[in-house]
Amino acid sequence: MALIGNSDLDVSPLCLGGNVFGWTADEATSFEVLDSYTEAGGNFVDTADVYSAWVPGHSGGESETVIGSWLAKRGRRDDVVVATKVASHPDFKGLKAATVKAAAEESLRRLGTDRIDLYYTHYDDPETPVEEIVTALDGLVREGKVRHVAASNISPERLAASLEFADREGLTKYVALQQHYNLVEREGYEGPLREVVEAHGLASVPYFGLARGFLTGKYRPGVTVDSPRAEGAGAYLGSERGPRVLAALDEVAAAHGVEPASVALAWLRSQPTVVAPIASARTPGQLTALLASMALELTAAELEQLTTASV
Question: A single Pfam family, by name (predicted)?
Answer without folding.
Answer: Aldo_ket_red
